[in-house]
Amino acid sequence: MAGIKSLAKDTAIYGISSIVGRFLNWLLVPLYTMTFTTAEYGVVTYVYSVVAVVLLILIYGMETGFFRFANHDRWKDPMEVYSTALISLATTSTAFVILVASFLGPVTRWMECAGHESYVMMMAVCVALDAFLALPFSYLRYRKRPYRFAFIRLVNIGVNIGLNLFFILLCPWLMEHAPATVSWFYRPDFGIGYIFLANLLASCVNFFMMIPELRGFPWKFNTALFRELIRYSAPLLILGVAGVMNQTIDKILYPTLAAARGDVLQGLGIYGANYKIAIVMMMFIQAFRFAYEPFIFARSREDGDSGNRAYCDAMKYFCLFCLLIFLGVMFYLDIIKYFISPRYFSGLKVVPVVMLAELFFGVFFNLSVWYKLTDKTIWGAWFSLLGLSVTLALNIILVPRMGYMGCAWAALFSYGSMMVVSYFVGQKKYPIPYQTGRILSYFGIAAVLYVLGMYCLTPWAVPNAIIRFFILAGFVGLIVYREGLPIPGRHKKRA
Do 362 and 288 form a contact (C-beta atoms < 8 A)? Predict the structure, then answer.
């Protein structure tokens, strides 16, 4: 249980930067949706969908590779692993920026940013910086320094949000009331470009804050180590790219597949804005992922039974928290929806589907422990390619008929298939006695409570909110009772 407490503690600290940070970024969504048209927000959604894929390609699995070899018995010096991986990422990130600059015109047209080459160039530099800095962030996780990790993340987010507010709210006001103060640099027609500029400047701040993690050790490149890193990480690249494409390919393909449904960028903007509502689930999963990889590689050195029990407990409590998040968001969606403009409310129907899809993806990530510990990462690539093929097939079939709802259902079935196949293969290759029956029983209970909370209600909003609160409280009470969890404030009596 001590291992689970440590995992929970690290998840909570990483969650400060992930959950709070994403929540603050989430608060920018109403600003974007009320300032820009649905078509302009569609361009933002499209650009960041492509960026997510490119970022994974530029990292090419080096984060997990670093964790594996820094803890590997064959490589005694973790700083040599760190240095080799850093040099590799620095080289490929620089080459990427040069490549984009060389083909800037065609890339700009492909990115739906025709006439705005600066948008693409800013994001190219930004994604190159973020790819390089992914390893120093991993180094902080390896050194068990979650507080510094969280601090740098929060500073980045604060700078990004501050610059967004400055460019999108303050500068237009100053142009109207005191134009001389900003007219020398501010261009009203730059529009959504200020979203990308704010992101780039925040990434530059991150780079300067990470300088201490880039000094104090010899920069040397071990060719033999690099070959092993690539051999280990290459399947993770396929896994990562396929995984992020499962999250973004629907948005990338939507303009083509929905061409017959009218203004496709408008539909993409509506889908992208409502997708953001499901970010609460994604925030928890991201925080958990930051803590889980160092956890599993550290636990792998323990006895099999002890390690396996920790993995089982982690899976169970992960699912319980995700179910609570799902019910909480759905029960109070009538309030949460006002974080976006009413112009986007037609897409609210995607929220429960997307949240359940993200839950399935989180379970799949938990199941990845077996092939990461056995160095059979190729299996992760196969599972991700399976999910990507399901995503592609269902998007092609459903989007022309259902619009962006087809994207949501495709994501649900994609992650569901990855989760199920990974579970059954894992139980044969590296059996872990997950409490599957108990977890499924909680899913069943949550489904019943969801129906009660959504359909067995009064005509009035306030009583409904109270009913839903007691339903959630009852679910928490059931979990505490069944799992024998300690109740805060209650102490055992002394004998």
Answer: yes
- C-alpha 470/C-alpha 476 separation (Å) is 10
CB 274 within 8 A of CB 351: yes
The per-residue DSSP string of 11-34 comes to HHHHHIIIIIHHHHHHTHHHHHHH
C-alpha count within 13 angstroms, C-beta hemisphere, residue 47: 28
pLDDT digits (tens, 9 = 90+) for 139-171: 887 777 878 888 888 888 889 989 999 999 899
User: Are 331 and 468 within 8 A, CB to CB?
Assistant: yes
Structure tokens at 307: 């390690």
Alpha helices in 60-184 (DSSP H): 62-70, 78-102, 104-110, 117-142, 146-165, 171-177
Type of residue numbered 341: S
List alpha helices for 374-403, DSSP H. 378-402
What DSSP string describes 261-273? GS-HHHHHHHHHH
- 2-56 pLDDT, tens digit each: 444 555 555 555 555 556 666 666 667 777 878 887 778 778 888 888 888 888 8
| Amino acid in the structure at residue 95 | A
With the C-alpha atoms ordered 313, 3, 428, 376, is the resulting torsion angle positive or negative? positive
On whether the pTM is more than 0.70, the answer is: no
